[in-house]
Amino acid sequence: MRQRFNRLSPETAPAAGAPLDRAGRFALPRPMSPPRELAANLLSCLRFYSRLPVPAFTFEPDPHGMPDFARAIRMLPVAGALIAAPAALTLAAALFAGLPAGVAAALALGAGVLTTGAFHEDGLADTADGFGGGATRERKLDIMKDSRIGTYGGAALALSFLIRWAALTALADSPARAAAIMLACGAATRVFALLPMALLGPARTEGAAFAAARPRAGSLATAFALAGAAGLAPVFAGAGLLQSLAATGLALAAAAAMTGISARQIGGQTGDVAGAAQQLAEMAFLCVFSARV
Fold it and tell me: How many Cβ atoms sit within 10 Å of the Cβ of residue 268?
């Protein structure tokens, strides 16, 4: 049995405690059909990246386990748009109801925080505290694990909310276009936040970033292709093509910059770094669309 187990690939190797069949061998799960596998990938991403009440389905091998990032991230653009939908709908509804642009933008940001549980904002705050307050690599990682928010983290959060609020306020002249931009932003920036995971090794030997498998090249290519298409989707809601290209490119550049900073600061990546990359990408994306061009 040990020899058979050792010959199994990482994709098919059974986990500890896997059920046995009648012959005493590991009973490997039956492969899912492509539509069900994509659905399982989408559900995993929704559970991991949000607090939406996603039910468990019988065809899922492990509904409440860690997502299989090697494959699941190909559906992250779709999950990202769905996660952004409550905030986008809140913004559009508030503007259609005649609320001031600033109030509508604040309500939209609040809806986003409730949907994600401030998932990415938490990563931004921890990263800012660690990179800003730590003198050594080890100290930076220790600070990032601390649940308390320091001066750098508080300032980073305040700037993030202020910049995004101002950008959304500037988009208030067209509720439908603003909602489309928010959906595109949610889809594209969550994929761009994968850059640290794709390009850097884990900085720790524990935590979500260490446990997550590095995305496969094919899955990553699919995710980025869909993210690029999402970044151009606002064109169909009245946004300019050049502005959409610029927003997508600058968001990707912001995530790449965060990846480079993390490599220099801690020699790798963590889940907090991915959250910070998403926040920088989101700010960049929204700022480009808020520009009067």
Answer: 18
